[in-house]
Amino acid sequence: MKVIKIDLLKSLKKYFGFNKFKGLQQYAIESLMSGKNTFVVMPTGGGKSLIYQLPALIQEGTAIVVSPLIALMKNQVDAMRGISTEYGIAHVLNSSLNKGEIARVKSDIESGITKLLYVAPESLTKDEYVEFLKRQKISFIAIDEAHCISEWGHDFRPEYRNLKNIIKKIGDLPIVGLTATATEKVQEDILKNLGITNADTFKASFNRANLFYDIRPKTKDVQKDIIRFIRNYQGKSGIIYCLSRKKVEEIAQILQVNGVKAVPYHAGLDAKTRARHQDMFLMEDIDVVVATIAFGMGIDKPDVRFVIHHDIPKSLESYYQETGRAGRDGGEGYCLSYYAYKDIEKLEKFLSNKPVAEQEIGNALLQEVVAYAETSISRRKFLLHYFGEEFDEINGEGADMDDNVRNPKKKSEAKDDVKILLEVVNKTKEEYRSKEIINTLIGKENALLISHKTNKQEFFGIGKAITDKHWMALIRQVLVANYLSKEIEQYGVLKLTAKGLDFIENPVSFMMTEDHTYEEGSDTNIITNAKGSGVATDEKLMSMLKDLRKSVGKKLGVPPFVVFQDPSLEDMTLKYPIEIKEMANIHGVGDGKAKKYGKAFIELIAKYVEENDIMRPDDLIVKSTGVNSGLKLYIIQNTDKKIQLIDLAKAKGIEMEELIKLMERIVYSGTKININYCIDDLLDEDQQEEIFEYFMEAENDKIQLALDEFNGGYDEEELRLMRIKFISEVAN
Q1: Predicted TM-score of the model (pTM)
Q2: Residue 457, φ and ψ in degrees, nearest 5
């Protein structure tokens, strides 16, 4: 064994230039080289690839590496070719090769040049490849991203399930399974499905102490928050993950117009574009990749400084793997995720079309994500517990590296509640998942509880004085504290641990932390909707601006809302514009309106800022992508040509409702449009005058108030078109 160690260190230095191994690398390599089945669970950045690369280079024959992604294979093959004079030292065998390339691969394997052959699992289903490999000297088989074999893994691939049978056909060979993220349930699945339950197992700590975990509420203005965040990382690399291709394109575009060097990456782009964008990121021609989860597996960029999840992932394994792409060099890595429960509901909706078994698994994994997002205990402790690892949240490495620990929530004594909870688990014979336990506690009947006659027990409803949310939060915290555990075989069924049984007999203090509640729009520092109906953060300034608006309106003989609407004033209290050009960045204020009314307002704000020593959030000014600018220009040009509105809407494939909204935006931002030719067809002169006078005298321009005033005399569309005419003529 000693000889192997010396040889290994020499080889490590020779091939990779390292003087020592990292963590458990050496022990796993020794296991594999002694011909044993080996299983490695090691976090992203822990050096998994070296565990099969080094033995492959040292040993006789070719090692087969099964890998799920072409990009990942290409990366690793390039890396291997970079350390050898032999181009054929590493090859890929997959659907991207032509006949000539396949012949070259086979020839290099036969002549003993190829040490590493990377294959997609689909390639191994081809009989011709299996027959060819049977005749070659194969050193071992490595299954990378081994979690793909498990339905409970975050990236299940059915073709991985057949690997055991295919490997048997190739020969009786040592197998090494490797994964960066696997719960105990998934680990068990991998060993069973690969037929290596006897494997030497090497599990490194999942703790990435240099990563900071932060979950923020996902408001409607999340894009502003992302841009503000990225501006603090100017010139540094980052990844933003979104669940849909459409969102990827949208975010990439808005970053580009705001001066961030960003590109999109998703499966809808052609292979050349994807490869180009990936290379631009690796070569640092751009700073940010906005991507679906198709991006990142096997991307060995050590200095990614932030990973942002615009949409919360479908599982904690995905979250762990994707956040793990930050700070692989041990330097700073900020992991920011935006959470709103409606995103979870959207994912649940997608699951509803899947087979029942898949739905159950998907929903169970989603609930773990909800628990992580809503918990207010140490996120690191919660995450590591999920992967079967205990963490000391006081003295552990990276203990203060998350939003919950930095901003602790209120704690309260919950000893009695914990005792009630554990007793209910015990009395229901440890047969229920969290949902049924909570229903038992609050006395809510369902089919399962009725069939077990739990609803007839004296403890049914024992905790109904407390909310279901409180009980759910308590279950999560009791699980992390190891008083309860989740059954692996029947995933999610709650079982009492020895510690939990002891607690029932000898209760001790249990300080429970309040869960987060992420209600939409709860972040008052950000405008929470596109119409600016967020709460003004500076009530004093808002009051002063309203007074000014009133006096300007009086002076010009127009209602105050004609000058600026409330959402525009609210935006001013957030951005504190002190120049006319900044006024044009205020919601609902175009250049024309800024020039016409802005002067008095910026003078008031400038004086207020100086007197109150206010730090202006310049970075709140985010440029829009101008998606609708072409459409707006089209409307202005074609209303000038007196084209009927219904024809305009049809030509652009939009509803009349949307067209009216766009026209409203045009006139409220200070641009005139002339729709008299349409209104003349709808209303006679007297009717137009009546509505015009109403708006001139009204306190505000809300359509509902106008509808009430005329009591059915005019319909909503007529009033909205007249309001457009009024604002265009009076305000602009």
Answers
A1: 0.61
A2: -75, 155
